[in-house]
Structures are given as structure tokens and as C-alpha cells.
């Protein structure tokens, strides 16, 4: 009954045992043990296809923190199933590929497969979670495991840079997303996505609705490498190629797509959502394809093409959300929902051909030692199978028949054309932009696909530039891309099988009302007759060939975008300047000079306390209750004040010590006036002992020198000192004038009855509040030990080394 | 009386603060000693002052006694500040012996401490 939850946890459990297997069975490639996990999960998930296609959903919940509404809730519907099958299916192939790609002898396989399984489990958790907080948990786990995988070759500087960059960007987005989730949760009072979808209608006017939407989108855009957050993806190509194929083409970057699709029923139909998602998608689509052309590294080219294709899917999701603008599900409103259907179709297609392409590039890299287009060429006859796979993948990506990319690209054109017919969201003015951008980006896509195939496999073979002698890859390495490439072709010829069994239920999960109304039943067909879309595709091919032919003559256009002004340099610059500035700021106020810290402390005290007094109007001066001053007291007070003032001006240390002693004795006299015999006694004794201590120590200390400071600093010190003194006086006066209630001391006058003592002060010290006294004794003890140790211990050079005795 | 004592406390605090802000370690320690005098006096006057009341000794059989609680608090405070001051003094002594300076602007840790 909890099988779904268990399925999510299984990769984590197996990951626990990987180091053991790696150590114990070192002779077998660890990947073989790992392979069983995604295969088993794929078979398990595939069983759900027929029932999900009938419209059933599966839900199971394990309580985790019920008091906070956080439960490990697994939910399987059409959308989750598509992603879960991609994760486990492509996962199986990637693990198989990695067995041949990563050397058993040279690589630390234990680490690799632990990270990979962790990622797989986290990714399954993302797509199968119904609880917002659990979804976030798995979301961050994918960020962390992807961080670990990118930096797998951690001795390379570029790997660490790429890992840090992707971590910073995706985690920033993730935290934004968490904030959005919390807003959603406070708005609707539940953490369950299904319940939020059911009740969101009441909250569309809520003040948190738009912020929550934008924050969730921030998370999705950073994860899915949408403009301008796409910059981490090309740098993540420092990861081993199986990782790039898995994480950065088929799964992790689809997490953002999944999130947008999942939240389309929540936010869809809103103009902000429609515009933000569509525009960001289109910009990413264009920018990714435009930048991919200039790349000379095959993996970087594929990275930008991934960005571009993700932008395509994202824009489709944005366009499709227009269907939710209407409250009713009718033929007319469902007309726009083709975009959603296309997005899911292209999502699957992209995973197949991009996975295959990454594996192809990995093979080229593995067998020639380089991925640089300028060094490669003429590999067609040397690596015929790899070449075939590359052609299939690239042509599918370019949108040519007979490959699945053709179908989704045609549908993409149809969707953008339909979107331009919208009569709301001010689409009358802007609608035409969509098909135009789509078409231009498709031309560029065609160009880089051709570069990928022709620059690598045609032309002259240049063995002198290659590190290895090129040869065909081993069979095991070819099997996974062959499977993916066959799917690419199979989807073209039998698109309606996945259309009916996978995409239709997924579509239903995003637009449930249309599904219930059985609207519309999309049929994918390669041939629609001669229509606008076909003409657009022909135009793409025609212009693409022309541009490819003339590529050297227009490559100068990229000089308009120098590296200095790129988003990467903006990122680097921001990171560096933030670090530099915070360092210089810290160095400026953390001077290491105690004087400065004391000045800060005193100024804060002055400002805060004066501010509080002024703000509350607490200052009072009411001398009416004062006791009269006798001549003795006045005389002693004046002497005491003069003594104190004289200390800073004292010429020798002896004078200063003696003046301090005078202060102490005068204080004792005041204690007499205040009728405190015990205090007077103690003060006399303590002052005598202190004075002798001072004298004793000062004997060893340097001569009392005149304060050598600049006049200005002295002035500042005097001002601070005066302000502190005035403040204390003000406080003392205000407190005396604001007596709110009587003292509790009347109770202590029962000292004789309660404690058998006639001296009240001693009764308090020894009986009523004896804890204070006990701890005060401890303080003295510790001080005594400290003094003893300081004098005796000589752990320094020259002296006896007590520490190491 | 209380007003005059408050002003006296203010003067003591001013002098103590000024000494704490100086460069020499000795002056800082002296400043803390004066600061504790000021605080003890402050606690004392907060307890109030009355010419009619007698010392807090029950044998006096007086009509009213001065507040005994602040006296007990000050007694504790005197002993603690004495302990701390003596520790401080010895610390200054050791510092000077090891580092040959009592100039606080020079006592800034080692350059390789960071």
C-alpha cells in the first residue's frame, strides 16, 4: 500500500550499501549492482501506464510531522508518471552507459554511484510528492547531489567552479521557491498540492497570490536554466558525460518544467503567469539557440541547445495556460490547450534525443580525447554507428522528418500560431511575436544541429590533433544511445501510442477540467497536408542551409556580444565584488584595536539609551524628596569629585594609585554616612589590599607615561566620557524620581525571627540570599587560581615548557 | 543629597570612561576600578537615603532601618570586583613581561593569527 513511498526511498537505501559493494566486490564494476535499481523501478512504474491512462490516480501518505501538516505523501498521476518513467528509463540507460564510460581502475566509482542514486531518489521524490514541504526537501536534495556530481573530478578547478555556480544559482531559486510555498500554504491552509488546486479559485485575489507565483517561478526558472539563470548549465558540463546526459538533459533541468506544469492548474489563467512563463521561455529559446552556434566545445553546444529546448517547452506551458483563462471547458477554450499537449510531447522527445546526443558526444570524447569541434572531423567512416546516432539525434533536434522532433516542432508552430489568435492578455498587439520568435529560433536550432553533425563527422580527419587514435566505441557504450535513437524514430512512426498512454493522462493532470469533459482528443499525425506549419518548416530548412553555408561570413555578429558584457562575467564580477567589499568593510571596522571597539560600545550605549529616554520621555528630575545635605557630606563629595578628576592628570603612577586609594576610602566614608557598617568595613579592607596590589604590580610595570594622543582624539574621548557620565546621572535622577512601589526590604527586618540574626545584611548574605555568596566565593577562588597560574605558568619560549611536560 | 550623589556618580563614570579609552593598559585597569566605585555608589543611592533610619542592625531597636538589600548586593559586588581587578592586574603584569609593552594600540595579536 505504501509501494509508491517505498519506490522513492529505495534508491537512497541502495546508496547506503554502495560503498560496501564497492569495497567487497571490487572486481565487478559497481554500476552493475546499481543498474538493477532503475530497471526495477522502471518496470514497477510501467505497470501503472494502463490504469493511469484510464484516468486513475494513486495516493499514499506516510505521516511524518503531522502537527505541521508535513507528510510524506506520494501521488502518481499522468504528469508524475511521464517524469518518473523518464527518470528511471533514462536512468537505467545512463547507468549502463556509465559502466562502460567510467574506468573501474581509475575512478572512484563508490562515490559516483552513491551520488547518482541519491539524485535519482531525490528526483523521483520531486515528481511524486504531493506535499509542498516534502517536494522542497527533495528539490534541494537534487541540487546537492547534482553539486556533488558536477564536482566529481574535484581536483579540477573548472569542476569546482561549475559546481559552486550551479549550487549558488539553483539553491537561491530553491529558497525563493520555499518562500513561495510557504505563502501558498498560509494562503490556502494546506500543504497538499491537490487540495491547493481544488481550493485555489477562492484565493486568486489574495495579496500573496502574485508573490507566491513569482517565487515559485523563480525556483522553476533557476532549476530549468531559463534566461537569465541559464549560466550555470554550460559550466555544469565539467561533470562526467553520463551525468550531463542524465541530469542536464533528461531529468534535473526538467524539474523546473515539471514544477511549472504542476502549478499550471494553480496559477494558470492569470495574465502574469501567462506572460512571464511565455516570455521567459521564448527569450531562453532564442538566446540558447543563438549562443549554441558560436560554441566550439560539443558539450557546451549541447548545453546551450538544452537551454534553448527547455525554453521552448517553457514557452509552450505558458501559452497553454491560456486555456485556463476561461472558466468552462468547451471546444473553443480547449483550442488553446494544444500547447500543453505539445510541451509534454516535446519533453519526452527532448529527453530521448538529447540523452542520445550527450552519449554520442561522450563517445567521441572517450574515443578521440577531445570535444573541440575545431580538432574533430572526418569521423563518419571511422565511427559509423556513432555517426548514425548523431544524425538521428541532431535531425530530431532540428525538427526534421522522420524523427520525433519533427512532430513536436510542427505542433509547436501550430501552438504559437493559435496563441497569436488569442483575444485577451493584449495578445492582439503582441500575438504575432510568438510564431516569429519561434521560427527564428528554429532556424538557429537547425544551424547548430548541422554544425554538430557536419563539423564532427564530415570534413578531413585530423589524427595529428587528436590525443588518441579514433575508433568505434565498445558495444556496451553504444547500446544506450541506440535504444534512445530507436525511440526517436519509433515515436515518429507511432506517436499516438505515447500520445494516448502517456501524454493524454499528463495533459489531464495539468488541465483536469478539460480531461473530464473529454476535450480535446489530440491526434498526432506526421502529415497534415500543406499548411502554414509545413511551410514554416520548409522555410526553416531552407534558411538554415543558407545560414549554415554562409556561417563564416556572419559569425562576426557575435563580436557584438563580447565576453566582457556577458551574463557570466556579470555573475563573476558580482560574486567577486561582493566578497571584496565585505572583506574591506570588515577590515575597516574590525581594526584589532581595543580602543575602537570601546568607542563603538560607548557610542551605541549613548545613542540607544539617550534615544530610548528621549523617545519615551522618561527623564524626570524631582529633588523634592531629597534628604538635606550636611556640610560633611558636601565636603567629601567635592573632595571625591576633585580626586577623581585629578587622576587622568596625575604625573606619576604613584600619584594615580594613591588618588585611587583616596577615592576608595572616601567611598567607605560615604558608606558610613549611608549607615552601612559592613560595607564600610569591607571597602576599607578591600581598598587597602587593592592599593597594595596595585603598588606591587606597578612596580613591575612601565613608567606611567603621559597619554600621547592627538589633541583631537583626546577631545573625542572627553566628549564620549562626558556623555556617558551625563547619561548615568540622568538615569540615576530619573530612577529616583520614578519610584513606583516600596522596597521589599521590610521583609528582611524579620531577620531575627526567621534567621536568628540581628545583622540584617549578614542575614541576607548568609541566609536569605546565600546562593549569591556561595558563587561569589567561587569567583574569588577562580580569580585566586587564575592569579596563581598566571604567575607560575611559563609555557612560553625561554621558560619551562609546562604544557609538554 | 540624592541629586548631589547622582552628579558625583556621573563624574566618576566620566573619569572612568575617559581612562578606559586611553592607550595604556594601566589606565584602562584604573578606569575599571573607578567604574566599580561609581557603580557601588550608584546602587547605594538607588536604595534611598533617610536621616531618621538607623543602620540595619536589629539590636538598635530603631523605628526604621536603612534598606539592607542594596548593602548586601554591594558587598557581593565589591568582593567580585576585587577578584576581577586583582586578576586583571596580574594579567597586565604578565602581558608586559612577555610582550614588553603596555600600549594597547600595539597589542593587536600576531599578523599570522587570521
UniProtKB/TrEMBL annotation, chain A:
Q: Where in the cell is it found?
A: Cell membrane; Membrane
MrpA C-terminal/MbhE domain: residues covered: 717-792
Occurrences of domain NADH-Ubiquinone oxidoreductase (complex I) chain 5 N-terminal (ranges): 65-106
Q: Which residues form a coiled coil?
A: none
What is the organism field in this record?
Shouchella xiaoxiensis
- In terms of superkingdom, the source organism counts as Bacteria
- Print the keywords alphabetically: Antiport, Cell membrane, Hydrogen ion transport, Ion transport, Membrane, Sodium, Sodium transport, Transmembrane, Transmembrane helix, Transport
**Could you say which protein family the record assigns here?**
Belongs to the CPA3 antiporters (TC 2.A.63) subunit A family.
Q: Where are the transmembrane segments?
A: 6-22, 31-52, 72-100, 112-128, 134-154, 166-188, 208-233, 245-265, 271-290, 302-326, 338-364, 376-400, 432-454, 475-498, 534-551, 597-617, 629-650, 657-674, 680-701, 713-733, 773-791
The record's listing under Pfam families reads: MbhD (PF13244), MbhE (PF20501), Proton_antipo_M (PF00361), Proton_antipo_N (PF00662)
PANTHER family annotated for this entry?
A: NA(+)/H(+) ANTIPORTER SUBUNIT (PTHR43373), NA(+)_H(+) ANTIPORTER SUBUNIT A (PTHR43373:SF1)
Name the chain's protein: Multicomponent Na+:H+ antiporter subunit A
Instruction: Tell me which InterPro entries the record gives.
Output: CPA3_Na-H_Antiporter_A, MrpA/MnhA1/PhaAB, MrpA_C/MbhD, MrpA_C/MbhE, ND/Mrp_TM, Proton_antipo_N
Domain NADH:quinone oxidoreductase/Mrp antiporter transmembrane as annotated: residue spans: 129-426
Q: Where is the MrpA C-terminal/MbhD domain?
A: 638-703
Q: What does the record say about its membrane topology?
A: Multi-pass membrane protein
From TrEMBL, chain B:
Membrane topology field? Multi-pass membrane protein
Locate the transmembrane regions by residue number.
6-21, 28-49, 69-93
Q: Keywords for this entry?
A: Cell membrane, Membrane, Transmembrane, Transmembrane helix
Places the protein is found: Cell membrane
Give the family per the record.
Answer: Belongs to the CPA3 antiporters (TC 2.A.63) subunit C family.
Protein known as: Multicomponent Na+:H+ antiporter subunit C
